[in-house]
Amino acid sequence: MNKMAKGALATGVGVALLLGGGGTLAIWNDSANATTGSIVAGNLDLESGAAVWKKSDGTVIPNISNYKVVPGEVLKFEQPLTIELSGDQLKATLAPDFGATSNGFSSQLSYDYKITQAGTELKGRDLTSANSGAALVTATVTFNKAAGNDTRKATQDLSKITYKLDQVIR
Questions:
Q1: Alpha helices in the chain (DSSP H)
Q2: What InterPro entries does its record include (predicted)?
Q3: For residue 132, what pLDDT band results from cuts at 50, 70 and 90?
């Protein structure tokens, strides 16, 4: 093979390697940035105010920790909440959790509650950003009238009642 043929063959192999091996020749190209903008995460927040405890007749109990409850008694409390839901597709549910009070004589207590906002019941509803703002919890705690002697002088910590604002994932 002469020098000219060997040179042409080497050039051909080099070009083939450049084209097939990921190398580039002077081929025009261009790029552009996407004009999609940014996204911002929303927020879910819940704050609780001071609870007010009352006897069943409506009389305010100044310090619930000093109050001596008896079987058959019904106590009521009201507690303001502030709800913040920020998100175009955000949905959440709100409910108290009385399970954290499982100490003392909790088996002898029953709970019922309502959560209202501007007169509308929120219990069992999906909340949206339209529900951001003030809400009010009203609840009753009933001491079983058939409670046994083992509940005498027992202490039940009700400060462990919590509220859960949970995002609804769909």
A1: 3-20
A2: Alt_signal_exp_actinobact, Signal_pept_SipW-depend-type
A3: very high
Q: pTM for the whole thing? A: 0.74
Report the helix count and the strand count for the chain, using DSSP H and E. 1, 9
* Close Cβ partners of 121 (under 8 Å, ≥ 6 residues apart): 114, 115
Cβ contact 48:80 at 8 Å: yes
**What number does CATH give the domain 43-167?**
2.60.120
pLDDT, mean over the chain: 87
The answer to whether 94 touches 133, Cβ cutoff 8 Å, is no
Instruction: Identify the CA nearest to 108 among candidates 155, 64, 76, 62.
Output: 155
The residue type found at 141 is V
Domain borders along the chain are 43-167
CA distance 154 to 149: 10
DSSP summary character for residue 169:
P
Interval 86-112 mean pLDDT: 85
Beta bridge partners, 67, equal none
AA identity, residue 12: G
Separation between Cα atoms, residue 109 and residue 146, nearest integer Å: 11
Are 135 and 83 in contact by the 8 Å Cβ rule? The answer is: yes
